[in-house]
From TrEMBL:
Span of the signal peptide: 1-18
UniProt protein name: C-type lectin domain-containing protein
Family annotation (PROSITE patterns): C_TYPE_LECTIN_2 (PS50041)
Lineage: Eukaryota, Metazoa, Ecdysozoa, Nematoda, Chromadorea
Segments of skewed composition (Basic residues): 72-82
Domain of life, per lineage: Eukaryota
Keyword Protein biosynthesis: no
Keywords, sorted A to Z: Signal
Source organism (scientific name): Caenorhabditis brenneri
Coiled coil (UniProt feature): none
Length: 260
């Protein structure tokens, strides 16, 4: 009898111990869970609700370890660490316009083809809400030249003069961009000997600028323009025949650059 009682006593102690241990382990799990939630989740609302969920489980449950574990490890898969949000898309110019991200802001560019002199080309750009464009840098020069070539090829024309937004500065042998936005002289890629203003020419000074562009086919039969590939020449504003194919580069302000 005494032995039996003793055995019963041992058994009870064992059960109590097991129970207590389970409880401790569970609490450890809970604490871990809470720490993980706090560390991995920047989303306030989500973390708070999950936090209180784990917390309430800890206070109410103590019976079955496997059951409570299931509750503390809900089936919903752990969110993979959130990929850093993709940078907000840079604002772009509207359809039919290229976007140039200049230091001073966004400038939109488009190229057109047509037998126009400088003044007519300005008027044409105005119908698009723009003006003849200056060239801010080499990227814009290549952009305008590339697009001009793209438009020339289906016309089977190998060379063109592209009107730019610039005028001769009186009393100097220099030019200045006049589109109200292009700055500096980085984009003034002058051809050899230019600008010459056609000094002494009976037709008067050359007060406008054209960018000379050639298609790949041009090189099958190069002419006097061959040293002007993608370079600028000054030209008479009211003429439109050298080279005979006329084009124009229009520009206008783009959407504001948003911060962040
Ligand atoms: C112009 O075209 C060349 C050759 O296809 C290309 O490498 C370059 O990136 C283009 N530049 C621009 C600004 O479009």
């Amino acid at each position: 009898m005494k032995t039996l009682l003793f055995l019963l006593f041992l058994f009870l102690i064992n059960v109590a111990h097991a129970h207590f241990k389970m409880d401790k382990d569970d609490r450890k799990v809970i604490r871990k869970e809470i720490i993980i939630e706090k560390d991995s989740d920047e989303d306030d609302g989500g973390s708070r609700s999950r936090f209180s969920h784990s917390h309430s489980s800890s206070s109410s449950s103590s019976s079955s370890s496997s059951e409570s574990r299931e509750r503390w490890h809900p089936k919903r898969p752990r969110k993979p660490s959130r990929p850093s949000r993709p940078p907000a898309a840079k604002p772009k110019c509207e359809e039919n316009w290229y976007t140039s991200y200049r230091p001073q802001g966004i400038w939109c560019l488009r190229v057109g083809i047509g037998h126009l002199d400088y003044h007519q080309a300005q008027a044409q750009c105005a119908t698009y809400g723009g003006v003849l464009s200056g060239i801010q840098n080499d990227w814009e020069r290549q952009l305008i030249a590339n697009e001009s070539v793209r438009q020339l090829i289906p016309h089977n024309v190998n060379i063109a003069g592209v009107w730019l937004g610039a005028l001769h500065v009186d009393g100097t042998n220099t030019f200045a961009w006049n589109d109200g936005f292009t700055t500096g002289t980085e984009g003034m890629f002058m051809g050899p000997g230019q600008p010459d203003n056609a000094l002494g020419d009976a037709r008067g000074p050359q007060n406008c600028l054209q960018l000379i562009v050639m298609t790949p086919n041009y090189w099958n039969a190069p002419d006097k323009w061959q040293t002007f590939n993608r370079l600028i020449d000054d030209y008479w504003c009211h003429f439109a025949h050298d080279p005979p194919q006329r084009m124009y580069a229009c520009g206008k302000r783009g959407p504001p650059v948003t911060s962040g």
